[in-house]
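Q: What would this complex look like in 3D?
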Amino acid sequence: MNRRAISSFCSVICPTLRRTSMTLLLVCGACFAVAQEDASHFTNATDTNDVAEKLGEHSVSTTTIITPLRVGALAFAAPDAVYKRWAPTLARVSQETGIPLELIPLTPNELVEKVSREELDFIIGNALITVAFKKDYGVSHLLTLMPRNQVSPEHAVGSALIAKQSLNIRHFQDLMHLKVVSSDPNAFGGFQILAGEMVKQGLNPLADLKHLSFVGFPQDKLLDQVLDGRADVAILPTCVLESALARHLIPPNALHILLPKTDSDIGCQTSSQLYPSYAFSKLGKTDHKAASAIVRALLAITAQDTQAVAGHYKYWSVPVNDSHVFALLKNLQRWPFVTNWQRLAEDATPWALLIAIGLLLGYFHHLRVKRLVVKRTKALSDEMAQHKHTQKALFEQQKQFYKAQRVLLTGEMASGIAHELNQPLAGIRYLTQGCIYRLDETQTDLKQALNKTILQVDRAQSTIKRFRQFCQQPSVYQNCDLKDLIDETLNLMQPDFKRMKLVPQLALWPITVSVDQSLMQQVLVNLIRNALDAMETSHKPRLQISVLDDAGQVHIVITDSGVGLNDDALQRLFFPFETSKANGLGLGMVVCKRIVEEHGGKIRAFNNQKATTELDDLKARGNLTFISAIPPKGLTVLVTLPLKGQIDV
Amino acid sequence: MCDLYLVDDDQDVLDSLSWMLEALGHSTECYISADRFLASVDLSQPAIAILDIQMPGTDGIELLTKIKSANSPISVIMLTGHGTISMAVQAIQKGAIDFLEKPVDGDKLNHLLAKALEQTNNAFTEHNLQASIVERINTLTPRELQVMHKVLQGKLNKVIASELNIAQRTIELHRQKVMQKMQVSNIAELAYLMANSKV
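A: Here is my prediction, written as structure tokens for the whole assembly.
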């Protein structure tokens, strides 16, 4: 197999692959290593057969192990350069261990993202990012890089402030008004270490450096800017200036390092403390056996190996003390450019979720309370409306009752007066007509006069009749529940009961009757009021009201424990203008009788002793469940109404 | 001419009505209450009663009911100060011959009295007839009653004889006795009498 052929094949295929996906399979990586060797004309011991052999091995291993382990390498501006730096090393490791590796150059953000998703197995990153990953994702630091030209892996990287010879400063504060350039805020060796120094001095590098700008890579560009005078100070990693001088890119003695540290471990001047260089780390999930094999392979690399040369390092060392990196991270974590937002977000997520849930619950509670308030308010206003309505209805009822009473009383008065006038008028008419009959044929004058008398009487009577008809109220019959009617009436009279501290004893049940409700209410009110009046002086007033139905009739029994009536008064109870009350008109019972009779019923009153026999009679028919024995003294009124539809009209 | 009773709780009205009726040739007996009327009047005799409806104690309607329930031939005319339709219907249903508003015109009342007189006499006659029929029937022996019913059904003597399982001659004798006791001369009269009977 021809080496040139392989390298040309690889150079065609690999960049295409790389460009499209930024990933390379190790086969390509191996090709690349070979190609690079070829291109840079290294005189190497590896012969074509070896390469062929290696490639053969690889083709075997790729068939057995399908998914290669992925190695993420930190890269800022030039992933290609980073790829070229690490690919030979990984190719060698892969070859020695038989573990396929895939090298993926990643920007800091991509790296963080992939680490958080655990899409990588190993990381090659600067000390700071490694420490951050250790802290946030439990990444294990396996090896520290020993860069070329350095003596200690612990003190390998620092930051240098580079300015023209003419410019010198004594403190970091002096930087505040100078034009400062740096390559990238995430660059460890350049900006971040210096920022850490400034934070230690109590400065805020992003806010206090008024004329700070990040101009990107390559780093030599910054030196040119300082030389041109476009910038006063360049923040760069240590050794950049020395390397540029060595390569004769800038004139000697034109630039110098500001605030140089004297006890520098490295061959270059630094403006800051020194930190370890790159670290090789594994993620928590990565298989430790593979990691051990890889570490062994890496440790085997010596400074003379081509891989070390390509990677600009001497060898890999065991991890060094990185406590000062931690301190730097801690300092820098106060500043947003190194803050691991994703990590913070992840940390904050449960809290945010908790707060969100809390807020949500609060909001629900608020909604619930609001709804409850609305509900209660509505209930309250409903109740108020109901109350108002009830009150209005009661008031209306009362008004109607009084109106009905007035009308009835007027009617009854008219009726009473009519009756009282009618009797003498009848007498006059009879007498006159009797006289006429007694006249003989010759007494025509008298007869004429007497006939006129009769006409006058008739006229008077027709007037009375019209008057009475005018005052009479037409009845409106409706089916209603007698129990409800009585309850309603008692409700209407509640104040009277309260005044007398009387609780009526009731034996009611629903019975449907066809009555004029307002008229029948008049009857009930009149009867109950009479009963109450009769008990005005009584110490223990008792009022019993019961209803019972009996063969198509319904009886309403109202019994009081009042003074009762003598026989004469009882006989004339239902006659107009008969009253025992000082201010009574004597029409109440007449009204009752008229209404009851108009309903086709009967009304009777008994003194209680006599009522007992009458009620016993009803009891005997088996449908009277009177509450208790009726009081010995007092009046019982028995109203009998036909059940609905049985009025004789 | 029969008795004419006036019942009203108002003495003056009674007197004046009586005065008018006397002028028309009716002699009247006045009662101030239903109870007094019931206490002194023989309800079985033909008579006319003019009753006021509104009275304390037993009122006119109740009195009417009592009169009619006593199976009296008395004709009743109801008077009222202010009548209602239901009251009128009730009165007529209970057997009053008329229901008039007070004061009633003499001529109208006179006319009505003539009708009432006729009615009470008829009622009395009818009443008596019924009583006599009952009396006559009561004189029959059970066998005679049996034979009479069969005769009234139009059955021949021999049929009756075979039905009752007695001799035809005996049936003839029973039949003769029935005619005699029922005071009729032929079967047609007997049938007429029994048809009018309410027994």
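A: To summarize the key features: The CA atoms of residues 129 and 197 of chain B lie 8 Å apart. The two ends of chain B are 30 Å apart (CA to CA).
Q: Very helpful, thank you.
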